[in-house]
């Protein structure tokens, strides 16, 4: 099992990155990093975090069953070296293909917009849907960009807003519980945040071993280490060890770990209670972290500390969280992952699927 970097190495890397980064990224004062390092030197028993072991390259990847993956990855790699305006042009072409090849996903996105924004006119929803299909196709290329672009090219289109909010938490000796949304440009966002401050996140292995190899090493290029998505104890431990951790609260995890609270126009939306568990069991401060588009290219916004997740009433806390998530989604609704069945799980008194 790979042992994660020490906090001292992380601080040195973060300090070095910030002093050489684009002005939009290097917003942290070096004294903040020094304070974090000082806190990290306080004596405490160390138990290695159980990280995901980095997949190794093997000769088996040359087997014919992987040739399709190699062909697709090679094409994607070549495309990502094109100028960004040309990549966007190609994404518009791919968007037209998506509309024809995966019409079910288009219908899911359309239904989600209808459910979430009943007050919008049909014309406005269709406009957002059209833009979302383009953003989704662009997300395909952004995956390759996030995995393979060199550091200098990422920095050229990147900016981070609100990094001081996270650094103040880390300087105080607490971990950051970064609540991240499922925007389609997430792969670029994760790469960018790592250059501002290396992060820790949950990881789900891909079923295809070659894709898993590319995915793991691509996502880990600028960040610290990853934890298996089922290893909740490891994420709590990481935050207790003064780490900047990322977590997704805006997904349907099923009935067993959720309660039903409003999200947009859907009065009963399955919302995971694990968010509250992490916020209250770990020595951490929750912050919203979201990847968006900007005039420069891409922006990662880090919000101010959230205090209401400590509310003992789960329904009150998660209702407020969903309101805040939707507020952020509303800033760029075309970039949210609407093609996912966000409202799939229904309460016992409403068993009928919303997607029929």
Give a brief outline of the structure:
With 356 residues, this protein is an alpha/beta fold. The chain contains 13 helices and nine strands.
Helical percent range? 40-55%
Number of domains: 1
Residue windows where pLDDT falls under 50 for at least 5 positions: 1-23, 27-31
Task: Give the CA-CA distance, first to last residue.
Answer: 45 Å
- The 3D shape can be described as globular
Q: Roughly what is the average pLDDT, rounded to an integer?
A: 88
Radius of gyration of CA atoms, rounded to a whole number = 20 Å
Structural class, by secondary structure, is: alpha/beta
* Strand coverage percent: 5-15%
Spatial arrangement of strands, main beta sheet: 1-9-8-2-5-3-4
The count of DSSP E runs of length 2 or more, i.e. the number of strands, is: 9
What is the string of helix and strand elements? HHHHHHHEHEHEHEHEEEHEEH
Total of DSSP H or I helical runs spanning 4+ residues:
13
Give a written overview of the molecule.
The protein has 356 residues and is α/β, with parallel strands linked by helices. It has one domain (11-335). It is 48% helix and 14% strand. The chain contains 13 helices and 9 strands. It has helices spanning 7-20, 30-40, 67-80, 84-101, 103-116, 122-148, 151-156, 163-171, 186-196, 209-219, 232-240, 274-281, 314-331, and strands at residues 158-161, 175-180, 200-203, 225-228, 244-247, 258-263, 266-272, 284-293, 298-302. The strands form 2 sheets. A 7-stranded mixed β-sheet has the order 1-9-8-2-5-3-4, with helices on both faces. It has a two-stranded antiparallel ribbon with strand order 6-7. A hairpin with a 4-residue loop joins strand 8 (284-293) and strand 9. It starts with 6 loop residues before the first helix and ends in a 25-residue tail after the last helix. The model is unreliable at 1-23 and 27-31 (pLDDT under 50).
């Amino acid at each position: 099992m790979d042992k994660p970097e020490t906090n001292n190495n992380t601080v040195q890397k973060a300090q070095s990155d910030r002093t050489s980064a684009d002005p939009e990224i290097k917003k942290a004062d070096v004294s903040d990093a020094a304070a974090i390092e000082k806190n990290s030197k306080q004596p405490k028993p160390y138990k290695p975090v159980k990280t995901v072991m980095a997949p190794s390259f093997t000769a088996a990847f040359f087997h014919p069953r992987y040739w399709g993956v190699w062909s697709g990855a090679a094409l994607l790699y070549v495309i990502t070296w094109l100028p960004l305006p040309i990549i966007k042009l190609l994404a518009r072409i791919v968007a037209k293909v998506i509309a024809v090849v995966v019409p079910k996903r288009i219908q899911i996105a359309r239904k989600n917009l209808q459910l979430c924004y009943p007050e919008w006119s049909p014309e406005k929803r269709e406009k957002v849907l059209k833009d979302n299909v383009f953003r989704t196709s662009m997300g395909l290329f952004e995956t390759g960009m996030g995995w393979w672009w060199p550091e200098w090219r990422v920095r050229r289109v990147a900016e981070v807003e609100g990094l001081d909010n996270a650094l103040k938490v880390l300087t105080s000796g607490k971990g950051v519980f970064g609540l991240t949304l499922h925007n389609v440009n997430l792969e670029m966002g994760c790469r960018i945040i790592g250059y501002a401050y290396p992060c820790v996140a949950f990881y789900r292995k891909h079923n295809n071993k070659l894709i898993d190899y590319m995915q793991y090493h691509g996502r880990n290029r600028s960040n610290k280490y990853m934890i298996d998505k089922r290893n909740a104890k490891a994420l709590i431990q990481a935050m207790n060890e003064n780490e900047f951790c990322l977590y997704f609260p805006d997904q349907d995890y099923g009935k067993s770990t959720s309660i039903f609270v409003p999200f947009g126009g859907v009065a009963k939306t399955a919302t995971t209670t694990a968010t509250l568990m992490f916020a209250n069991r770990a020595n951490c401060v929750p912050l919203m972290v979201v990847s968006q588009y900007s005039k420069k290219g891409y922006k990662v916004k880090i919000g101010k500390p959230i205090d209401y997740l400590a509310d003992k009433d789960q329904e009150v806390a998660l209702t407020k969280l969903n309101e805040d998530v939707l507020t952020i989604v509303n800033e760029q609704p075309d970039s949210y992952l609407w093609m996912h069945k966000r409202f799939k799980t229904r309460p016992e008194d409403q068993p009928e699927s919303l997607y029929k």
